[in-house]
Specification:
By secondary structure, this protein is an alpha/beta fold. Helices cover about 35% and strands about 15% of the residues. Helix 2 crosses helix 5. The radius of gyration is 16 Å and the shape is globular. It starts with about 40 loop residues before the first strand and ends with a strand.
């Protein structure tokens, strides 16, 4: 039975990927190299392999809403993640309306709800502050540089979105791959006035 790889400290502050062994001097993370984050810290619950990968794929591509209970249980088992979320407002990364209609839901919204449930905290509000303005095809086949370029202005603040400069917002997405999507979403929140901004994903890989 393959195990879930739960991510703990020490890990990269920019993408959440664990550092294995001791790294001397400056920690350069190969997983988010070249990303100039406009957010503070990132955390992830587990690595995108084994059971974690199956959960994400079932949720995203097979309408497997039944896996959300397992996702919430894995989040709850990672105490560092639960602590990291304390006092935050969760902001799911939005899908383009066309894609959301096709899929029937936004998996990042459902994962944000799983974080809320896992933290046993009704005081972890979810705010849909962003919209996706560019209907870009799936990013999976593109390299890092292309992803960054394609995502540049993919998001904007929703009309009438109320953003409080001193509130801590945590962007939620299913998987951290190169960080291009999350960074583009963070950029849009910054432009709308958010100053205190972090990132959380269910998986990394």
């Amino acid at each position: 039975e393959p195990l879930v790889f739960r991510v703990k400290e020490p890990h990269c502050q920019t993408c959440g990927h664990p550092f294995f062994g001791h790294l001397a001097g400056e920690r350069i993370c190969p997983h988010c190299e070249g990303l100039k984050p406009v957010y503070g810290h990132a955390k992830t619950v587990s690595l995108f392999k084994g059971p974690t990968r199956d959960l994400v794929i079932t949720l995203k591509y097979h309408h497997g809403l039944h896996v959300l209970a397992d996702i919430a249980a894995l989040i709850a088992a990672n105490e560092e993640v639960v602590r990291f979320l304390a006092g935050a407002t969760l902001v799911p990364v939005p899908l383009h309306p066309r894609k959301e209609r096709e899929r029937g839901y936004n998996q990042s919204q459902l994962i944000a709800e799983a974080f809320q449930k896992a933290a046993l905290s009704p005081s972890l509000p979810i705010a849909n502050l962003l919209q996706r303005t560019v209907d870009s095809p799936s990013q999976t086949t593109f390299d890092r540089r292309t992803r960054q370029r394609r995502m540049k202005n993919a998001f904007a603040a929703r009309k009438g979105a109320l953003i409080t400069p001193d509130q801590r917002y945590v962007l939620v997405d299913d998987v951290f791959t190169t960080g291009s999507t999350l960074n583009a979403a963070a950029q849009a929140l910054r432009r709308a006035g958010a100053l205190n901004l972090d990132v959380i994903t269910f998986a990394h890989g």
